[in-house]
Amino acid sequence: MTPARLIIVPGWRDSGPGHWQSLWAQQLPGALRVQQDDWITPNRKAWVDAIARTILQQDGPVIVVAHSLGCIATAHLPPEAAAHIQGALLVAPADPERLAVLSDFAPVPFQKLPYRHVLVASSTDPYCPARLAGAYARAWGSEFVRLPDAGHINTESGHGEWPLGLALLQSLVGGTSLTMPAHPDFSTLPFGALTA
């Protein structure tokens, strides 16, 4: 069986150097980070196309790890791309109606996502009220994890390496160990051995 590939989907303005997504992209073997042509004034079609293209270029299934607007873009994926997703970790989804620059991503799809996924939200996220995150979780059929006072679950809220996120990722991928060492070095992890 073809190994699953980790696909990292950043949100609006990309994820900076200390962000957990950036650390995972550097440290988890085989991880691919989706690149967007415009991180500042995002266009839904362009973003969704870039994510779909990255997924469809892989030989087998993928695990998606999305943050913020990346979660919303992932929810917009066409069925042919979504069919390749083995699991997804959707962290701190954005509310695209709160900021005009993100409004192209509204309305957010409110139907069940066709793959297993965990949605992680915070009670104090400035970009998405907890109520709305709960509504996403119900509509999408998510396994829902609500963190108290975790902000936007990014560098500014103190989530650099984010070991809890790795534990949640491991719950999606099964038997592969993804523990975060004190000084991260994932070069020896068997991430490439993930199977569907």
Rounded to an integer, what's the Rg over CA atoms?
15 Å
- Tell me how many strands there are: 6
In the predicted model, the low-confidence regions spanning at least 5 consecutive residues are 176-196
Helix content bin: 25-40%
The run of helices and strands is EHEHEHHEEHEH
Please, how many helices? 6
Task: Spell out the blueprint of helices and strands.
Blueprint: E1 5-9, H1 20-27, E2 32-33, H2 44-56, E3 62-67, H3 69-75, H4 79-82, E4 85-91, E5 116-122, H5 130-140, E6 143-147, H6 163-173
Parallel strand pairs: 1-2, 1-3, 3-4, 4-5, 5-6
Task: List the keywords.
single chain; 196 residues; alpha/beta; 6 strands; globular
Care to describe what's here?
By secondary structure, the chain is an alpha/beta fold. It has helices at about 20-25, 45-55, 70-75, 80, 130-140, 165-175, and strands at about 5-10, 30-35, 60-65, 85-90, 115-120, 145. The termini are close together.
Structure summary:
This protein is of the alpha/beta class and 196 residues long. It is 28% helix and 16% strand.
